[in-house]
Design brief:
heterodimer; A: about 220 residues; Rossmann fold; six-stranded mixed sheet; four-stranded antiparallel sheet; 7 helices; B: about 800 residues; alpha+beta; 4 domains; globular; ATP binding (chain A); ABC_transporter-like_ATP-bd (chain A); ABC transporter ATP-binding protein (chain A); ABC_transporter-like_CS (chain A); transport (chain A)
Chain lengths: ~220, ~800
């Protein structure tokens, strides 16, 4: 088992009232799964993803990740944990505009203290694998949306994470580009055994996954 | 990692060119000021630090107490050295007296080469070289100055007087001072290589002075203190300075004249540590050509440097926190990719350091230029080379790190606090940042700028006031020069005056004492008996004749002039009448006062005039004739009035006078001074303060306005959509401009309100130092406040007007 959520609650106080963002979420995810989270806007999809990614906190409940109790961990340990095991893919790519493709790919490795030679090899490998060697010295603004997302996925993968969290990865892409990205996810999941959790609006994209979780007003349905 | 940071930093600096420019410029202004001022401080503090046992060397100085205050003299009474020597105190390793001498010329009789006015000549004995350790290049250190008519030269002087000679060959050769003092070179010492105030170059043996004393001081006794008579001592390793001081105080007391003590006049000896000589204005140093700073001046300059740096740092903090939103995305991404907060803090500090370093490089060039621009304020020996001194370089690096922390730490903390979730989802601008801190900092900047503006206006007003104010005598078109003081011939002077009087460009010339106002004052202690009461006071003396009195347009209120030049009759001023309590000038006539046990008659009363800077009040003064024999007459200065009032026409007449000088005094140089220039020189330090203040004000305004400009750009760009909507709804450019500037003008106004009492307090204090002062008028504050507002408004309008003028459709569409 990769991770387990038990009775997770998250709320904000608004005008004296408690508004629930997540309500009593229970979830178990095993290694090698490909899960799609669906639901209307505001149903808590992204919040759930951020909680799983440890970017966001929750107010009540238990979260275990690889036998570590996330809810008991200090900020620093938590960040070490996600740094080690989780890769993120965003709807709007979130590449650093001031860095080239190559440098963007290198960045997670820097924070994991890989040596220079290792970094070079890993970046070269990734460029090769995603067929973007020719674009390595371009800046994000010089790439199409699909290409940017390709770099985004490559960056998420470069440090060999166990889990990839993708928040509407194809939201800004046209249908052909979407398809390419989804095919890539599928391949990663099936061939490399990477666990993937994606948030999506599209039934078609959800179908790539092995399991669908539906959310409505912060509850699992 | 480091390379990655560096790259990001460079690209960031490059991308935000305007902000980087503002930051770098602001920081480099502060840094260059700090570099130059720091170099000055280092320079001035590094004097005489190299002497072995330097901390055991003291100069003995004298301070006098009298009814009119305390006075200081760098010299001591001549017998003191002998007395200390005879006591053989166990605390003293050496007692080194010397006399500074100013020979007119010195000659190498072999070559016949004459050298005019050699400087840094002293009479001393071997004890001097026991106190100060020199490297001996030739001659015998122990005995060099034992016999009369010996001289030790510095290496530089030896080479000057005996070019092309081996140093050892120079020993035994002779040089002759003023045709009469023949000396044999008995030693050559290396010049000190490090900075020093012990600048002497020629050491004549003390015994020479028994017969040939050009200082005219060596014979004097316990009642006469001359700054030419210097005394240095060196304590033994365990010698207690307190014990020596006790002995000195005792000696001073023993030799105080009881009559003087009864009048409230005493003197004491103090021990001035060698390290104190350079910066203590009370006693001065031996090199009169070099301008001296004082500790308090250095402190004000340091404060100025700190202020300018802080202003620059504030710009940095303000612009970086304001720009934070632009960088929040990067922060979010870095955090999700595993960056810790500490790593981000270091990244931002690194960026700040980079920017600071760029500013520092710029500052180096600026410093070079500043050193030239402010050469009037900077000691001559201080050049740009001082920056290659390792200690200065270490200081520079330390300063860079400090500035980096000061300006980078707060923004780094704020920026690294952003939560990745909120940033990446672009939902909220982190709500902790309402810009409150920025507002405080901006207000602080403008308080400083405002205080500077008010001060500049007031100091300017005061300077103008004292320079324009009537001194009480005529100064226009009057000049004077001193005849060579060693030339005692009265006839030569008489002849000179006669010849000047014949020149067509001169209305009148007279031979008299010093001008009514000058840097030299003569005074004596006098006693006035009023019934049974004694009134002791000091009275300044002005030596002249009726022609002199009229030349300067002095006013006689009652009585008459002294009957002739040599009779002892006095015309006192009204300030002295106040001291002795006489209100009607007529009542003073026929009264006498006592000086040196002699009754001196008051024959007239003159109106007060200022004898010195208007900073000080009018001192009691008495006008009298030359009062000495021909040889020792006070009449050594020739005053003349030019007939033409235009300055440009004067050079011809001056040239003619110089020609006469060359004829009468071929051995000396002609130096004349216009009375107006003398008056101007009274305000030298105030003028310097004023110039520095103007610069400080300009720079403070520049830095603060740059920062303001940056903030205006930032807020205006954030509100560009609002501007578009308002414009479509019918707002005019002026209305928009007011809308955008209002917020900042409020800050400037608050700054003004805070600055006013601070400036008022400080300036009031400064003005108290002046006897004649202008008022702290309300309009100074209003004018300063309005000009600050105006400057701020103009700066802001550059951006706001252009934003208000852009096509609203475009702004709204881009959004």
């Amino acid at each position: 088992m990769l991770l387990q959520l038990k009775n997770i609650f998250k709320w904000v106080n608004s005008g004296g009232q408690r508004v629930f963002l997540l309500k009593d979420i229970n979830l178990e995810i095993n290694e090698g799964e490909f899960i799609s989270v669906m639901g209307p806007s505001g149903s808590g999809k992204s919040t759930l993803l951020n909680v799983i990614g440890m970017l966001d906190t929750f107010d009540e409940g238990e979260y275990n990740f690889l036998d570590e109790s996330v809810h008991n961990l200090k900020e620093k340990h938590r960040s070490n944990l996600y740094k080690e095991y989780i890769g993120f893919v965003f709807q709007s790519y979130h590449l650093l505009d001031d860095l080239t493709v190559q440098e963007n790919l290198e960045m997670p490795l820097l924070y994991k203290k890989f040596k220079g030679s290792e970094r070079k090899a890993m970046v070269a490998d990734m460029l090769d694998r995603f067929n973007i060697v020719g674009k390595k010295d371009l800046f994000p603004s010089q790439l199409s949306g699909g290409q940017q997302q390709l770099v985004g996925v490559a960056r998420a993968l470069i440090a060999n994470p166990k889990l990839i969290l993708a928040d509407e990865p194809t939201g800004n892409l046209n249908s052909q580009q979407s398809e390419e990205i989804m095919e890539l996810f599928k391949k990663l999941n099936e061939e490399d055994g990477v666990t993937i959790i994606q948030v999506t609006h599209s039934e078609k994209n959800a179908a790539y996954g092995s399991r669908i979780i539906n959310l409505l007003d912060g509850r699992k349905v | 990692m480091f390379r990655n940071y560096l790259k990001i930093s460079f690209r960031n600096i490059w991308k935000n060119k305007v902000f980087s420019f503002i930051n770098i410029l602001g920081l480099s202004i502060g840094l260059s000021a700090a570099f130059v001022i720091g170099a000055m401080v280092y320079y001035d503090l590094s004097f005489d630090k190299f002497h072995p046992d330097g901390e055991r060397i003291y100069r003995i100085t004298t301070s006098f107490k009298s009814p009119s205050g305390e006075f200081y003299n760098a010299g001591v009474t001549v017998p003191l050295a002998q007395e200390l020597h005879n006591m053989e105190m166990s605390e003293l390793e050496s007692v080194a007296p010397f006399f500074t001498a100013y020979p007119l010329y010195v000659e190498n009789p072999e070559t016949g080469n004459k050298f005019k006015r050699p400087d840094f000549v002293i009479y001393t004995d071997d004890s001097y070289f026991k106190t100060f350790e020199y490297e001996w290049l030739a001659g015998n250190e122990q005995k060099a100055l034992q016999a009369p008519n010996k001289v030790v030269l510095s290496e530089q002087r030896a080479k000057k007087y005996f070019p092309n000679e081996e140093l050892t060959n120079i020993i035994g050769k002779s040089i002759v001072y003023q045709d009469t003092i023949s000396t044999t070179v008995s030693g050559i010492v290396a010049n000190f290589e490090d900075r020093t105030d012990i600048v002497f170059e020629e050491f004549i043996s003390l015994k020479t002075g028994i017969t040939q004393d050009i200082t005219n001081t060596m014979e004097s006794g316990w009642d006469n203190t001359n700054s030419a008579s210097q005394l240095f001592i060196k304590l033994t390793k365990n010698g207690s300075s307190a014990d020596v001081q006790k002995t000195l105080t005792r000696i001073a007391k023993e030799h105080d004249n009881p009559e003087m003590v009864a009048e409230g006049r005493t003197n004491t000896y103090t021990m001035q540590p060698l390290a104190d000589i350079h910066l203590n204005p009370l006693y001065g140093t031996f090199d009169f050509n070099d301008s001296r700073t004082t500790i308090s001046a250095l402190n004000s300059l340091l404060l100025l440097a700190v202020i300018l740096i802080v202003l620059g740092c504030i710009n940095f903090i303000n612009l970086n926190t304001a720009q934070g939103i632009q960088r929040s995305k990067e922060i979010g991404i870095r955090k999700t990719l595993g960056s810790s907060r500490i790593q981000l803090v270091f990244q931002f500090l690194g960026e700040t350091f980079l920017l600071t370093s760029v500013a520092a490089i710029l500052s180096f060039f600026l410093s070079k230029w500043l050193l030239l621009l402010f050469s009037d304020f900077i000691p001559q020996g201080l050049t740009f080379d001082i920056f290659w001194n390792p200690w200065v370089l270490i200081g520079v690096i330390f300063l860079l790190v400090l500035v980096t922390l000061l300006s980078g730490f707060y923004p780094a903390l704020i920026l690294s606090k952003y939560k990745p979730v909120s940033v990446l989802k672009q939902q909220i601008i982190p709500n902790s940042d309402k810009g409150t801190m920025r507002k405080y900092l901006t207000i602080f900047q403008f308080v400083i700028a405002q205080v500077f503006i008010i001060s500049t206006v007031l100091v300017g007003k005061q300077l103008n006031y004292v320079m324009k104010k009537d001194m009480g005598f005529k100064t226009e078109a009057i000049a004077y020069f001193r005849t060579p003081w060693r030339d005692v011939s009265y006839d030569k002077r008489k002849r000179f005056v006669k010849e000047i009087n014949n020149l067509p460009g001169v209305t009148e010339a007279v031979l008299s004492g010093n001008p009514p106002a000058s840097f030299t004052t003569m005074s004596m202690g006098v006693t006035y008996h009023k019934g049974d009461n004694e009134v002791n006071s000091d009275i300044q003396l002005l030596y002249g004749n009726p022609e002199f009195f009229n030349l300067y347009d002095l006013k006689l209120l009652a009585g008459r002039m002294p009957l002739n030049d040599s009779i002892r009759e006095y015309v006192v001023n009204t300030s002295y009448l106040k001291v002795i309590g006489i209100s009607d000038p007529m009542d003073a006539l026929g009264k006498t006062f006592k000086a040196n046990n002699e009754d001196l008659p008051i024959v007239g009363v003159m109106e007060d005039f200022n004898q010195h800077s208007l900073k000080y009040g009018v001192s009691p003064m008495a006008f009298t004739g030359s009062s000495y024999t021909d040889k020792w007459t006070q009449f050594r200065t020739i005053h003349f009035k030019l007939s033409n009032l235009e300055r440009s026409d004067w050079s011809q007449t001056i040239g003619q006078i110089e020609a006469i000088w060359k004829d009468i005094y071929p051995d000396s140089d002609f130096e004349y001074t216009f009375m107006d220039d003398t008056v101007k020189r009274f305000y030298e330090s105030e003028r310097k303060t004023s110039i520095l203040l103007q610069w400080a004000t300009g720079l403070a305004i520049l830095i603060s306005c740059l920062g303001l400009f940056g903030l205006v750009i930032h807020t205006t760009e954030r509100r560009i959509k609002e501007i578009g909507i308002r414009k479509i709804l019918g707002a005019s450019v002026v209305q928009l401009n007011i809308l955008l500037s209002k917020e900042f003008l409020k800050l400037v106004l608050i700054a003004f309100i805070i600055a006013t009492p601070i400036a008022w307090y400080g300036l009031n204090h400064w003005l108290e130092g002046f006897t004649n002062k202008t008022g702290l008028s309300w309009w100074i504050f209003v004018l300063s406040g309005l000009s600050m507002m105006f400057i701020a408004l103009v700066i802001m309008s550059v951006k706001t007007v252009s934003s208000a003028n852009t096509d609203p459709v475009k702004n709204l569409r881009i959004e």
